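Can't paste images in this forum, so I'm doing it all in text. The chain is below; anyone willing to post the predicted structure tokens underneath?
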Amino acid sequence: MRIGLVCPYAWDVPGGVRSHVSDLALTLQERGHQVSVLAPAEDPGDLPAWVVDGGRPVSVPYNGSVAKVTFGLKTTRRVRTWIRDGEFDVLHVHEPVAPGLSLIALWAADGPLVGTWHSSTARSRILSAGYYVAQTAMEKLSGRIAVSEDARRTLVAHVGGDAVLIPNGVRVADYAPCGRLPGVDPDRPSLLFLGRIDEPRKGLDVLAGALASITAAVPDLQVIIAGPGDAQERLDRMDPSIRGHVTFLGRLSDQDKVRALRSVDLYVAPHTGGESFGIVLIEAMAAGTPVLASDLPAFRRVLLDGAAGGMFANEDAADLSREAISLLTDPAERARLASAGTERVQAFDWASVVEDVLAVYEAVTVTGEPVTEDLRGQIVGRLAGR
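Text version of the structure:
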């Protein structure tokens, strides 16, 4: 099958949608399918051979974040050329109503179309303002997928219709032992934060507010912070007493992200909102690293209400401090959570999740009709059995 995937966000900027599209593309290729991905790129020279440059991205506020997207007449021509040359059996558009490549691809394409919703938002000015434009594009979709119940509710509330629930995946085999990250001392306790450090909803301020108490209780703690943003500005804002504990790594490659996760004692996800799933949680679990996360509804579902990872009250630095100290000083409990996470993440392994995506592709390419309730029921049954 010839499959086109559209990622609206910059390929060289870390993010859950980009990780999802990349892992899906790799897994589909391993199954023998021909896959081409269209995405914006800040540095087209670093793109894999199967990713096509959709244009230079610009920053646009979207869903409580700053999205790197591309649009305009030149971008529209690139989209049309990619679709024409690709001769795809199915075109799979991610975040169909995100500004830029995704909407353009829906307008430009004919034939079997699938859309996946990733975001969760209670209120979207873009979706509200562009309701009729989005509705026109959505009518072309034969298959609709949501990665979580929160994302499905966003689709229903803002666009209408329903979707098959297929969760985010992780390529568990890629997280096999691959060495430690240099600079993380294996003889000292350590915790890791991953995310855009200048994006408030990723919660670095909450973690920073907890660090004085945590380092007082764990004096030799290493705090590893990885992600794009102004590291010096963030360090200058931190309490002087904790600066010596903190190391900023900047943006990591996919391989170094895995090595970082495998090198630390605890992964902390202090996100404050806007998360429909939490792909970074399953990445940490795939690496065998115990997780401590804020109790967002999406995170609670992934972590089975705390059975597969520690949790603390959202935006509560004091509670984060208590839970982090408890885990950092209790190797047995960290080992238990790591084991529970390793078991839990099997439900999200792309090796099995891809079967549900292919079932949607087959439904829209064979019948040309919208995905049926019967197929939804079959997928729900498979999810329940994982």
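Residues 173-347 form a domain with the Rossmann fold fold (CATH 3.40.50.2000). The two ends are 26 Å apart (CA to CA).
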